[in-house]
Every structure is written in structure tokens, then in C-alpha cells.
Amino acid sequence: MAELSFTEEELKEIEQLKAKFPTAKAATLQVLWVAQRKYGHVEPEVQNLVAETLDVPKSHVHGVASFYTQYYKEEKGKFVLDVCTCLSCQLCGGYDILHHLEEKLGIEAGETTDDGMFSIQSVECLGACGYAPMLQVTNGVYVNNLTKEKVDTLIDNLKNGKMPEFESMAMPELEKRNQAASE
Amino acid sequence: MAQDWKSFEPLLIPDIPNLQQIEVYEGNGGYDALKKILNDQNEWSRDNVVNEVKQANIRGRGGAGFNAGLKWSFMPDPDGGPRYLACNGDESEPGTFKDRKIFEFNPHLFIEGALIAAYAMTIDTIYVYIRGEYISWVEKFQKAVDDAYEKGYLGENIMGTDISIDLEVTYGAGAYICGEETSMLESLEGKRGYPRVKPPFPAQKGLWGRPTTINNIETLANVPLVINNGAQWYSDLGAEEHPGPVLYGISGHVNQPGVYEYPTGVPVLELINDVAGGIRGGKDLKALIPGGSSTPVLRADQLEGVTMNSDSLKDAGSMMGTAGMVVMDEDTDMVDVLWRIAHFYHHESCGQCTPCREGTGWLEKVLLKIKNGEGEMKDLDLLLDVGNQMEGRTICALADAAVWPVRHTINRFRDEFEARCKKSTHAVA
Amino acid sequence: MPEVFIDGKRYEFEGKPMLLQFILDQGLEVPFFCYHPAMSIPANCRQCMVKVGTPVKDRETGEFEHDENGDRKIRWFPNPQTSCSTPLQDGMVVHTQETSEEVARAQKDNLEFILVNHPLDCPICDQAGECPLQIQTYKYGPEGSRFEVKKVHKPKRVELGPRVTMDAERCINCTRCVRFTEEISETNQLTIVQRGDDNYPQTAAGEEFDDPYSMNTVDICPVGALTSTDFRFKARVWEMNQTPSIDITNGKGCNVDLWTRDNEVLRITPRENDEVNDYWMPDAGREAYKLFNENRADRPSIKLDGDNQSNTSWNNAIETFAEVLDAHEADDILTVGSPHASVEENFAFNKFFNLLGSSNAKFTPDVIPGAGDDFLITDDQAPNTNGCRAINLDEADSNSLQSAVSGAKVVIILSDDLVGREVLSAADLNDSYTISFATNENDTTNVSDLVIPITCIAEHAASYVNVDGRIQRSYPAKETKYTNRRLNLEMSEGRLDRYGTNFDNWVSEENKVDCLPVWQFLNKLAERINLDFSYNHSRDVFADISEQFDMLSDISYERMDEENGVQLPIKQEEVKQA
């Protein structure tokens, strides 16, 4: 890998992140995020870049990066599909969705497709229990109330470079009332 | 509890379109509580604010249910050094998805509550720690914070007074344990989320060794309601010992899952049947986890007359937790469910201290064995024993949270577990 | 004075001690793994659990409340508490495993958890025999295991750095090693990586654990997770014997133990001394064990024809030495003492030649400016520079030593590789007859005309004065050809020494070096030349020293032993570059 570095702009962003806290060390999580957005992962070289930028021990960054699951310690697919299989999603068919995806993409959870497009992971509760089953795309948007069809559409869209949009999940009660009022 | 709970008008997330926009919030009485306090700091001295909140008895909505005002009163007198309010938006307990509603639909109510808390405890820096997976909500919330800065509710000389309070938004990167308050402090300091040994408690030594109070997002969103309407009004809402509005997150096998706002003390069965539309496919209710995955599961027959408040749930043999209700129908395989819960706690144990690091994995592995039909009867007692050896022996409560579901699910559905063990070849041999 | 009741017995305490340390200070025992008195308290192993209660006080009067029997009412903590992190309070009542079934059970439960993922490989583990986990499991642990599912697998045989090998499966995550690099050596080279039961200590990717103090983590690891790469599989602990000594590789004089088997020093570990090195020592000091075994000056040697040295008998060496002395005036003889030799060796050496009319021996400090740190590594490369000063040897820099050498016909050097460390060149010694007293062969002995092999610190009792002016002493740890462990009461005996016979295949003569203490050789030489000089033991040499020098007048071996070394009234001088 070539010598890694942050751009002027990124360094400015990092300074702003550091300014939130009384110590540079406190910005470790945030700067790892900046690095992951830039490189798509936080492999060891990236971790060391973060350590050097913040002037904190490399071991510290390594320990932190390996503790938190959202950091990709190795390169992943372009789209990482985090399928929630925890409690409520399990009850509502999260594993069916996971297995459907595995079958569809020909890989198992934890793996990446040969073309580098997709990785699938079975993950813990993402805090969307009322909209189960669901998944998250590359630490970003949530896709809720999944069906096999919805998954198929999602995959097609992603292949075409179309990211799903943020779905606002309203308070159902309020929605009901609003509906009643408009009728 | 008044019988008219169904006509309750939501307070935390009222039915006002675009309330997340600061002008709309202001137009609907937003920031009035803050103004009320800052405009009359004699009447609303810091102590008076703490007392008012204490009397209102807002019980922490993060799971522990501790009186928020009482918690505030533990802060030592200011010594001129920094003091912090750390707001816990890490909600990660399976079954819990309520705080994101506040970030999305009524962020200013929370900001206002946090400001009042900071004022009351002479704090000048607020950190809001949101779980990393909620990046969409982090962005939405950051917008609200920026607006509040622009309008002068945050920053230097708030609304022309000599009070200055900053609010910094930050977020995690995937670790349930960071919802444990001292682990969140470690994470805020940029470290691995290892819970701290208590004492010292955060009020004495919190962020960077300075006095710190940690409150849940929903808890703080209740504060402006108290200031606007008085402690008496607030404590009359809902259940007597556990008053106020609550965001109930209902998920699992119901027709209309989602987050609903009602007072505490609503009958559990009515929440399931009337509010959430009953069980999917016309099936029967089998079990309920009332407040997130760590709260003990209750069988359907244990739910008669139970209401959603800590006392009633305690009598029934469970807890209020985060009011994240997970509903299970008659076809639910309790062995599968329990294994999945155990898997969660095993995955999320930080590994710092022995009983949790080793015990959570042991529990999961034995449950997997039972789930796969390879269990033996002695495994059930082993699970209970391992649980007893973990509970109360660790630095934080994650081990307890891992143990309770195991203990109560086995005890309350023992037949189902025994039947699975009997199927195993070991038992036959 | 505030009081605490432990297992029914009353103790008084001062200040704010933590319960575990207080219990240990009373000579009592509670099992523990993560706690270390020199580091922060993470309370993560959870092993030191005890039952704790505090007396109930009447809120108004502040008086203790009593029950119907007149005993104080005690409010017990609902759960057992980790004693390491529990501050003592006045009136606190404590039950350890000795008096509480509940506590004994809690400790046993915890050990069962620790062993869940710990491999059952004690028979091939270096730590076995000195393993806190093994020992405490025997004493407090469960008899069997109920864990019948798969253990977690982690990296094994990982070279964390040049000197430390890790077996992550044995790790119990006490974090002592990580805290050591954060709090003691401050290199921050280690962290815990991963999460939950996948946790283990590691360096940053691509980084080596080359901390100059790295091997201390091997000592404090309470299991066999971190082992010494060099010592791995060399010996079982119970085969060795352990002798207190001093680190001679720099001026700090770290207190150490020498571990020997069959008169071979196999490893060196630090020995606690709060006044000098706490519990630690630099890695470099541990390498010194090789100096004691390898490349020793063994039997006298003499240059007969040209540059060829060959071994010779002690009789011939003494005869030759005597002839050289006989043939020269005292003024023609230059004696050079050594900061690398002990106080006794320097004194006996100097006294002998004083008696022959020579002036005081010179010595040249061995200092590398900037080599030291603020901790246990010093610029001074020698263990006894201040000891040479204390007995008034003549401190000389390289130049003045060179000119002294050029004016001498005989140069007698005590245990100092002056050529190797470039104080003198080999050519400087060309024109004189050079006699070296030496422990090891080196550049100086190579150019010497006569080499007298002498005992090293591992073979004699002698004292050394460190850079801070503390005098501390060694004990003989390995036998020479002329000493006998069973007759010398100062020597310790390991199992093999005690129960072995000369016919056992683990006992050999080959590790016994043919050498003598300086004073014993000088006795023989004195006898030959009729000089009134005789010391039976280094203790007698030291008695003479303390009689002669005020600063050492009330110092004795007994006092050094009792007080773990004695601070001398020496001003902390800048140690000058020679």
C-alpha cells in the first residue's frame, strides 16, 4: 500500500473533531470514522495513520478499532449488508432474510462476493425492532420491513448504483390520527 | 391510573408536523421552559430546578428507573473546574428503538431538557453520545443542534444571560456495552468501552476525572414538561410511583409494531391488543419481554392485570426496563429465542471481567447444544448454576442482564426446554 | 485509631488502605490475579472477593447501633466485594474464604470461569510451578470442570517482540502487561484487542514489543501467557535454586535473583526492593546470565612464546606473578582497580599492592552519556563506580590512564576490559608486562601476559555501591571448582542439589569454573612472597573496610541483609565521562 495520508481538508475536519474534547485521544473513534469513510476500512496501516495524526499510541488505536464492530478491520465489499438477526428480527424472519441473501449472492454471512460488490454480515440489534426484519447498508441507511422481494429490489438497485433513501418510520398512532383527520 | 389513557395526548412526541424544525418547536411553546428559568433565576435557582425535577420523580428511561432529580443532586458543589452532562443515546438493548424517535421528531425537547439539566447542575459542556449505527439520526440531530446554536439557545451567553453551555454530538462504532454509563464515558474519552469500577461514581469522577451526570435521552426530554407544568402535574400522569409519559416500543408478533407514547401504567394486554393491533395472524399470545431483552420474559398467563410500571411488573416477576416490549406468539420456539438472546450478550460482553467474559460464552454454547437437540437434562441446571455464579459478581450489570433471561426463560418454559433435551441422543442413551 | 475486623480478628489501620493490600500486609491471604501493588486497580479478575459489611450508625447521634445481643448491627453488602478495590472503613467487618462458605464458593465459582477457556497444558507450560493460577486453583478452585463445550481458540506461540512469546489462549485478561507498558515503562506498546472472550493482549499491527523492560511482563503475568523467549522450555522451576543478587550491567544495582541448575545460571529475575527497583529490572540485566556461564576465564593462562596464551597451573601462575613482582620496583608497577568489581575485590587488590609500596590503584568509570533513562537504566555501565570512590581509589580518565600505563613496566588490571571499552588500546599495553584478574575472556585478557581467573558475582559474596550510593551485596549462587554448596551455608540448595548425588545424570562438573576469589588468590601470592595479607572470606575483607573508612563504619553484611541494602551518605554526583 502506498504511503497513507489525510488531505488538508480531512485534517481540518479532524481538528474540528479534536476540538470537541479536552484530549486528542477522545477523538479516536471519530477519526477512525473519518479514515474508514476515506479508505473503506481501517486495516492496520490506516489505524497507524490515525494514531500518528492524533499523536496517540498505535496500540491504543488498534485496541479501539478491534473493540468496535462497525470498523472494518479488513477490506469489505462495496456494499456491506448488515442483516439484523437479533431478538425481534429473529422473531419476524431475520434469518430468512439472511439466508435469502446468502443464497442470492452465493456467499455466507461474513463473506464478500468475488466481484467485491457485496458483503453480508449477521449483526446484533440495530434498534429498528418495530420494523423487523431489516438491514443496514454499509453503516448507513436502514432498510426496514424486509421481504424477499424487497431484498431483491434492493440488490438490483445497489447493483445499479442506487442507494436506498432514508425511510422515516413515523409513530403509527400519530399516523393513524392524521389519516383519520384527512379522511 | 385513569381509565382514559387512550385519549392521552402525546407530550414527548406530540402530533405536530415538522416539530423537529426549530421555528415550529418555538411556535408551539418550545424553549419556554428554558426561558422561564433563565428569565427568573431567583425563582428558578439551580437548587429549585433540581428539587422540582426530583419531586416530579422522573424515573430514568434508560432501564434502571432511578429518580433523575435525585441523581442530579449527587453532583458535588462546583469547584471552578469542568463538569459534564453525558447524554446516553446509545440505545442498543434488543427491543428498544425509542430515543431515535426523539432525535428525528422532537430533538429540541431533548436539547431543552439537557440545557435545563446543565443549568441546574452548573455544567457548561453537554455530550450527546449516540450509537454509531444511528448515523442517519446523528445527522438529523446535529442539524437541530446547529439550529439551536444559531438561535442562541446553545453556546455563549444563552439568550443574553451570562450562562454559556456547549453541546457536542458524538457517536459510537458498534458496542452495546457503551450504553452502560461508565463504559459510555470511556468511549467518549476515545477508548475501548470498558465499564469502570464503582466507586468512584461518575458524579465524583466521571469524564476526564471530573464530576459528570449521565442521563438517558428520553429522561431529559421529560424535563421541560416538568418545568412547564410543575412537578405535581407531572407526577399525576400515569402510575403513581413511576409517573410520566413513556415511549413504548412494541415489536415482535403484533399487527402494528412501532413506538407509541402513553403514560406509565397502561395495562400490558391492552397495549398489545388495542394499541399494537393484537397478535399477527390471529394467533394467541405466548410470551412478552416487557422492557428490552434483559428483562425477564413473562408467560401470557402471567400478564393478566399487569400494567407497564415498575411496581406492577416487579410483582409479576419482571421489570420495566426501557419499555421495549417484545411480543411472542404461540408458535415461538423459546429455546431458539433464549439462545439468540444469549448469543447477543456473549457477542456484546466487553471481556473486561471474568464472570461475564467466560460465563456469557458458556451460556450461549450450552444453549446452542440444547437448540441443536444435543442437550442433556443436567444442562438446564448447569445453565441456572452458571447464571447464579455470574450474577452480582461483575463490574457492570451486563452479566446480570445476560443471566436474567436465561434463568427466567428456563424456569417459565421449563417443559419446552426439557422436551428439547429429552429429544437428545444423550438423554436416550 | 480506626479498626477493622477480618475473620473475627481486630486490626487497626491508618490512612486509607485498600482491603486486599491490608490483608496481604497482615500476612493473611486472599487469592487474586489482576491486582499488583505498583499499578492501578482494575478489579477485573474478580478473584479477591470477600464478604464485607459496615456498622450501622444512628443517623442522629452518629453512634453505632446494636442488636439484642449487644453486638454492633452490620449492614452487609448484598454481593461479595472485590477486596482489591474496597477502601477500608472504620468498623468494617470482613469475612474471607477462611470464615465464609459463601466467599469460598464465590472464589471457587470464579476460578471455574477462569479455567473455562484456559488450556489444560500445565505439563508443558513454563509457568507451571510458579503459576498463581495453578497454585490458587489447587487451593481454592473446583475439583473438576463442568465445561463440556468448545474452548475459544486464539493465537499461540506469537513472538510479541524479541524477548517475549505469547500464548493468547492461556491469557486470563488481567491486563497487568498492558498496564505495565502504560503506567510503569510508559511505552504504551501493548493493548487488549478484540472483545469479550476473544480478548488478548497485543501490540499495534507491525509493531514489536521491544520495550527495554518488556520481560517484566513475563514476571507479572499470572499465567503462562507471556513467557521469556530465551528461557522457554529450558528448565522447570522446581529444578532450579534461587539466589539473591545484584544486577551488574549498569549502575542502578537492581535487586535480582539468580536461578541456577547444576551450577549454570539459567535466568535472572527482579527481586523486590522499593528503594531501588520496586519489582522491575531492564531486559538487558537479564541477559547477564550468559556472562556467568559462557566465555569464562577458566584456569590461569600465560603467554609463553609470542602472542600465544596457554593454560597453566595455579602454582605456575603464582610463581610467575611473584617473579614479576620481585623483578620490579613498586614505582614501576601500575595497578588498575575496576568499577565492574566489588568493593571487597577492589579493596583487597589495592591493599595488597599498597603493602608492596604501590600508590592507590587507579580506576576509570565506564559511562556512556545518554545511554540511561529516567527509570532503571543508567549512563553508568558498571555496578560499583561509587564503591571505588568510597575506598579512595584514584579516579582517572582515559588519557591519564594511558599516560600512566606508558610509564609503567608492569600493569595489573582488576576485572575490567579496558581494551574492549576503548579506555586503552592493545598497543598501549605492548611495552609492559600485563596481568589481568578476569572473570571472562575479553580483548584485555587476550593481550595480557598473565590471566588470573576470578569469581564473578554469581560465585562470591561481595558488595557494590550503586549510582545513588546504596551499598548492596551478592551471595554465591554457583559453585566453582573449589566451593561446595553443602559446606557453604550461604549457598542455597534446590531440589536437585539437595537430593542429587554425583552419580545422577543431571549433576556434572562442567559448569564449575576453575577460578578463585581475588582475595584468596592474593592470600596464596602473599604466602609465596611472605607478605602479611590474609582473608578467609569477603566478610573479613569488609570488616577491614568498615574499620578503615568512616562512611562504611557501621555497615556490615548483616545490616545489608536486614535492610535490603544500606544508603551511604554519598552525594549524588554527576557521573563523569572518563
Topology:
The complex is a heterotrimer of chains A (183), B (429) and C (578).
Chain A: H1 8-19, H2 28-39, H3 44-54, H4 58-67, E1 79-84, H5 87-91, H6 94-105, E2 118-123, E3 135-137, E4 142-143, H7 148-159, H8 172-182
Parallel strand pairs in A: 1-2
Antiparallel strand pairs in A: 1-3, 3-4
Helix pairs in contact in A: 2-3, 3-4
Chain B: H1 22-27, H2 32-39, H3 46-56, H4 68-73, E1 84-89, H5 99-105, H6 107-120, E2 125-130, H7 135-150, E3 166-171, H8 181-188, E4 212-216, H9 217-221, H10 223-229, H11 231-235, E5 238-239, E6 242-243, E7 245-252, E8 258-263, H12 268-275, E9 285-289, E10 298-299, H13 310-316, E11 324-329, H14 334-348, H15 354-371, H16 377-390, H17 398-412, H18 414-422, H19 425-428
Parallel strand pairs in B: 1-2, 1-4, 2-3, 7-11
Antiparallel strand pairs in B: 5-6, 7-8, 9-10, 9-11
Helix pairs in contact in B: 2-10, 3-6, 5-6, 14-15, 14-17, 15-16, 15-17, 16-17, 17-18
Chain C: E1 3-6, E2 9-12, H1 19-25, E3 49-55, E4 74-76, E5 81-82, E6 92-95, H2 101-116, H3 132-140, E7 158-159, E8 164-166, H4 176-184, E9 191-193, E10 200-202, H5 216-220, E11 226-228, E12 241-246, E13 255-261, E14 264-270, H6 283-287, H7 289-293, E15 301-305, E16 308-311, H8 314-327, E17 333-336, H9 343-355, E18 362-363, H10 385-390, E19 394-395, H11 398-406, E20 410-414, E21 433-438, H12 443-446, E22 450-453, E23 463-465, E24 470-473, H13 495-499, H14 518-529, H15 538-548, H16 557-563, E25 566-567
Parallel strand pairs in C: 1-6, 17-20, 18-19, 20-21, 21-22
Antiparallel strand pairs in C: 1-2, 3-4, 3-5, 3-6, 7-8, 8-11, 9-10, 12-13, 13-14, 15-16, 15-22, 23-24, 24-25
Helix pairs in contact in C: 2-3, 8-14, 9-14, 9-15
